[in-house]
TrEMBL record:
Residues 74-108 form the U1-type domain. This is U1-type domain-containing protein. It holds the Pfam family zf-met. PANTHER family: ZINC FINGER MATRIN-TYPE PROTEIN 2. Residues 156-167 have a biased composition (Basic residues). Residues 19-33 have a biased composition (Basic and acidic residues). One of its GO terms (biological process) is mRNA splicing, via spliceosome. Keywords: Metal-binding, Nucleus, Zinc, Zinc-finger. GO terms for cellular component: spliceosomal complex; U4/U6 x U5 tri-snRNP complex. Residues 19-41, 125-167 are annotated as: Disordered. GO terms for molecular function: nucleic acid binding; zinc ion binding. The keyword Zinc-finger applies.
Length: 167
C-alpha cells in the first residue's frame, strides 16, 4: 500500500463549496421573493357583463379562409382582448368566462361577497318586479287560443307551399 500513488484524485475544498451553495440559495430566495411580490397585484372582483355576447351574427354564413389573413379575419371567433381565435361558439363562451380572459381584463376569479342588506334589497326588487296579481286566468286562455291560431296558420301555409311545389 506504500507504493500506491493516488494523488491524481481531485481534492475538494469543502468551505469553498459550502460558500457557493449558500450564495446560490440566497439568489434563489431573492428570486422567489420577487415572484411573490409580483403576483400580489390587486385585481377587481368578477362583475356582470354589461354587453351582449354576439354568438348568432355569423350563424349559417360562409367565409373564405386564407392562411395569410390576420387573426381577426380567420375562421372562428376572435377575442380582441387576448388576441386569439377560438373555433366555435361554445369554446368562445368558455374562453370569455375563463381565467385567462378575466385576468386580461384585470379581474380575479373571485366574486365580491354580498352583505345581508344587499341580499335583502335584491329580494325586494325581485318581488316588486314580479307582481303575482297581474296574471289572470282570462289572459292565459287568450294566450293559448292565440298560439293555437298561429300554429294553425303555419300549418296552412306549409300545405299551400307543398301544393305549389307539386304543381
Amino acid at each position: 500500500a506504500a507504493g500506491v500513488d493516488n494523488t491524481f484524485r481531485r481534492k475538494f475544498d469543502r468551505e469553498e463549496y459550502l460558500k457557493r451553495a449558500r450564495e446560490r440559495e440566497e439568489k434563489e430566495e431573492e428570486e422567489r421573493l420577487k415572484k411573490s411580490r409580483g403576483s400580489l397585484v390587486q385585481r377587481k372582483p368578477l362583475k356582470h357583463r354589461d354587453y351582449e355576447v354576439d354568438l348568432e351574427s355569423r350563424l349559417g354564413k360562409t367565409q373564405v379562409v386564407t392562411p395569410i389573413a390576420p387573426l381577426s379575419q380567420q375562421a372562428g371567433y376572435f377575442c380582441s382582448v387576448c388576441e386569439c381565435v377560438v373555433k366555435d361558439s361554445a369554446n368562445y363562451l368558455d374562453h370569455i368566462n375563463g381565467k385567462k380572459h378575466q385576468r386580461a381584463l384585470g379581474m380575479s376569479m373571485r366574486s365580491e361577497r354580498a352583505t345581508l342588506q344587499q341580499v335583502q334589497d335584491r329580494f325586494e326588487s325581485l318581488k316588486t318586479r314580479k307582481d303575482p296579481g297581474s296574471f289572470t286566468v282570462q289572459e292565459l286562455d287568450e294566450r293559448i287560443t292565440k298560439q293555437q291560431e298561429e300554429e294553425e296558420e303555419k300549418k296552412r301555409q306549409r300545405r299551400e307551399r307543398k301544393k305549389e311545389k307539386k304543381e
